[in-house]
Design goal:
It is built from five helices and eight strands. With about 180 residues, it is α+β, with helices and mostly antiparallel strands. A hairpin with an 8-residue loop joins strand 1 and strand 2.
Length: about 180
Amino acid sequence: MRIDPSRFTVGDEWAYRQSDHAPSERVRILAVEPKKTSARLEIRFLDDPDERVEKIPGSRLRVPWNEVGTFDALMANWQRIDDLSLDHTEEACVEEIFGLLISEDVAELLWSPVSCTTDIHDRARLSEIIDGPVDDILASAQQSFPRSGELARSSALRSCSATGRGHNPGIVGDESD
Protein backbone atom coordinates (compact mmCIF):
# COMPACT_ATOMS: atom_id res chain seq x y z
CA MET A 1 0.00 0.00 0.00
CA ARG A 2 1.41 3.38 -1.01
CA ILE A 3 1.56 5.79 1.93
CA ASP A 4 2.60 9.45 1.63
CA PRO A 5 4.91 10.05 4.61
CA SER A 6 4.26 13.81 4.49
CA ARG A 7 0.76 13.25 5.89
CA PHE A 8 2.29 12.29 9.27
CA THR A 9 3.61 14.94 11.68
CA VAL A 10 5.42 14.27 14.91
CA GLY A 11 3.09 15.08 17.82
CA ASP A 12 -0.18 14.47 15.92
CA GLU A 13 -2.76 12.02 17.30
CA TRP A 14 -4.10 9.33 14.97
CA ALA A 15 -6.39 6.29 15.02
CA TYR A 16 -4.34 3.08 14.96
CA ARG A 17 -5.81 -0.28 13.93
CA GLN A 18 -3.92 -3.56 14.13
CA SER A 19 -6.32 -4.88 11.43
CA ASP A 20 -9.55 -3.83 9.69
CA HIS A 21 -11.66 -5.53 12.36
CA ALA A 22 -9.67 -4.40 15.40
CA PRO A 23 -10.84 -1.42 17.47
CA SER A 24 -9.31 2.01 16.87
CA GLU A 25 -6.72 3.06 19.42
CA ARG A 26 -5.52 6.63 20.06
CA VAL A 27 -1.81 7.09 19.41
CA ARG A 28 0.66 9.97 19.16
CA ILE A 29 3.36 10.02 16.48
CA LEU A 30 6.82 10.19 18.04
CA ALA A 31 8.94 9.78 14.89
CA VAL A 32 8.46 9.42 11.12
CA GLU A 33 10.91 7.41 9.03
CA PRO A 34 10.06 7.97 5.33
CA LYS A 35 10.52 5.02 2.98
CA LYS A 36 10.37 4.90 -0.82
CA THR A 37 6.58 4.34 -1.03
CA SER A 38 5.56 4.33 2.63
CA ALA A 39 6.64 5.33 6.13
CA ARG A 40 7.65 3.61 9.32
CA LEU A 41 6.40 5.36 12.44
CA GLU A 42 7.22 5.30 16.10
CA ILE A 43 4.01 5.77 18.09
CA ARG A 44 2.85 5.89 21.71
CA PHE A 45 -0.48 4.36 22.71
CA LEU A 46 -2.08 7.17 24.72
CA ASP A 47 -4.82 5.14 26.42
CA ASP A 48 -2.51 2.29 27.42
CA PRO A 49 -1.67 2.51 31.16
CA ASP A 50 1.98 1.74 30.33
CA GLU A 51 1.97 4.14 27.34
CA ARG A 52 3.58 1.44 25.24
CA VAL A 53 5.70 2.55 22.28
CA GLU A 54 5.93 0.63 18.99
CA LYS A 55 7.35 1.03 15.50
CA ILE A 56 4.67 0.35 12.91
CA PRO A 57 4.01 0.68 9.17
CA GLY A 58 2.20 3.90 8.24
CA SER A 59 -0.72 1.89 6.84
CA ARG A 60 -1.90 1.12 10.37
CA LEU A 61 -2.68 4.78 11.06
CA ARG A 62 -6.03 5.21 9.39
CA VAL A 63 -7.28 8.74 10.13
CA PRO A 64 -6.42 11.65 12.40
CA TRP A 65 -7.94 11.05 15.84
CA ASN A 66 -10.49 13.87 15.40
CA GLU A 67 -12.05 11.83 12.53
CA VAL A 68 -12.20 8.51 14.40
CA GLY A 69 -15.98 8.60 15.05
CA THR A 70 -16.84 8.80 11.35
CA PHE A 71 -14.17 6.25 10.46
CA ASP A 72 -15.32 3.75 13.11
CA ALA A 73 -18.94 4.06 11.90
CA LEU A 74 -17.81 3.36 8.33
CA MET A 75 -15.77 0.34 9.43
CA ALA A 76 -18.73 -0.94 11.50
CA ASN A 77 -20.90 -0.78 8.35
CA TRP A 78 -18.29 -2.77 6.41
CA GLN A 79 -18.17 -5.32 9.23
CA ARG A 80 -21.98 -5.75 9.19
CA ILE A 81 -21.84 -6.38 5.45
CA ASP A 82 -18.95 -8.82 5.83
CA ASP A 83 -20.80 -10.77 8.55
CA LEU A 84 -23.22 -12.11 5.92
CA SER A 85 -21.09 -14.83 4.42
CA LEU A 86 -21.25 -17.07 1.38
CA ASP A 87 -18.83 -19.88 0.69
CA HIS A 88 -16.49 -19.55 -2.30
CA THR A 89 -18.75 -21.59 -4.59
CA GLU A 90 -21.80 -19.48 -3.75
CA GLU A 91 -19.84 -16.26 -4.30
CA ALA A 92 -18.59 -17.50 -7.68
CA CYS A 93 -22.12 -18.45 -8.77
CA VAL A 94 -23.60 -15.14 -7.64
CA GLU A 95 -20.83 -13.22 -9.40
CA GLU A 96 -21.28 -15.12 -12.67
CA ILE A 97 -25.06 -14.75 -12.80
CA PHE A 98 -24.92 -11.15 -11.59
CA GLY A 99 -22.42 -10.30 -14.35
CA LEU A 100 -24.62 -11.89 -17.02
CA LEU A 101 -27.78 -10.08 -15.94
CA ILE A 102 -26.75 -6.69 -14.58
CA SER A 103 -24.59 -4.19 -16.45
CA GLU A 104 -21.96 -2.16 -14.58
CA ASP A 105 -23.83 1.09 -15.16
CA VAL A 106 -26.72 -0.35 -13.08
CA ALA A 107 -24.70 -2.01 -10.31
CA GLU A 108 -21.20 -3.41 -9.93
CA LEU A 109 -19.44 -5.89 -7.71
CA LEU A 110 -16.76 -4.54 -5.41
CA TRP A 111 -14.04 -6.56 -3.71
CA SER A 112 -12.54 -4.23 -1.14
CA PRO A 113 -12.67 -4.04 1.79
CA VAL A 114 -15.35 -6.75 1.73
CA SER A 115 -15.67 -9.37 -1.00
CA CYS A 116 -18.75 -9.65 -3.20
CA THR A 117 -20.31 -6.32 -2.27
CA THR A 118 -22.52 -4.48 -4.76
CA ASP A 119 -22.56 -0.76 -5.45
CA ILE A 120 -26.02 0.08 -6.87
CA HIS A 121 -25.95 2.97 -9.35
CA ASP A 122 -29.45 2.82 -10.87
CA ARG A 123 -32.25 1.49 -8.64
CA ALA A 124 -34.94 1.92 -11.27
CA ARG A 125 -33.12 -0.17 -13.89
CA LEU A 126 -32.20 -2.80 -11.32
CA SER A 127 -35.90 -3.04 -10.36
CA GLU A 128 -36.76 -3.64 -14.04
CA ILE A 129 -34.10 -6.35 -14.35
CA ILE A 130 -35.33 -8.23 -11.28
CA ASP A 131 -38.98 -7.39 -12.03
CA GLY A 132 -39.67 -6.14 -8.52
CA PRO A 133 -38.75 -3.56 -5.91
CA VAL A 134 -35.08 -3.36 -4.97
CA ASP A 135 -36.08 -2.26 -1.46
CA ASP A 136 -37.51 -5.69 -0.66
CA ILE A 137 -34.25 -7.43 -1.53
CA LEU A 138 -31.98 -4.89 0.12
CA ALA A 139 -33.95 -4.41 3.33
CA SER A 140 -31.89 -6.94 5.25
CA ALA A 141 -28.49 -6.05 3.81
CA GLN A 142 -28.40 -2.38 2.85
CA GLN A 143 -25.96 -0.11 4.64
CA SER A 144 -25.31 3.61 4.39
CA PHE A 145 -21.91 4.79 3.28
CA PRO A 146 -20.60 8.27 2.49
CA ARG A 147 -20.68 7.85 -1.30
CA SER A 148 -23.14 8.16 -4.15
CA GLY A 149 -24.29 4.56 -4.47
CA GLU A 150 -25.81 2.05 -2.10
CA LEU A 151 -23.96 -1.04 -1.03
CA ALA A 152 -25.36 -4.48 -0.31
CA ARG A 153 -23.73 -7.78 0.56
CA SER A 154 -24.13 -11.44 -0.26
CA SER A 155 -27.70 -12.31 0.75
CA ALA A 156 -29.07 -9.43 -1.30
CA LEU A 157 -26.86 -10.35 -4.26
CA ARG A 158 -28.09 -13.93 -4.13
CA SER A 159 -31.68 -12.65 -4.25
CA CYS A 160 -30.93 -10.24 -7.12
CA SER A 161 -29.21 -12.98 -9.11
CA ALA A 162 -31.93 -15.55 -8.47
CA THR A 163 -34.76 -13.12 -9.20
CA GLY A 164 -33.05 -11.74 -12.31
CA ARG A 165 -32.34 -15.27 -13.53
CA GLY A 166 -36.00 -16.18 -13.17
CA HIS A 167 -37.03 -13.22 -15.29
CA ASN A 168 -34.30 -13.76 -17.91
CA PRO A 169 -34.31 -17.53 -18.56
CA GLY A 170 -32.77 -17.14 -22.03
CA ILE A 171 -29.55 -15.70 -20.57
CA VAL A 172 -28.92 -18.35 -17.92
CA GLY A 173 -29.99 -21.99 -18.39
CA ASP A 174 -32.88 -23.45 -16.44
CA GLU A 175 -32.33 -25.35 -13.22
CA SER A 176 -32.05 -28.71 -14.99
CA ASP A 177 -28.87 -27.57 -16.82
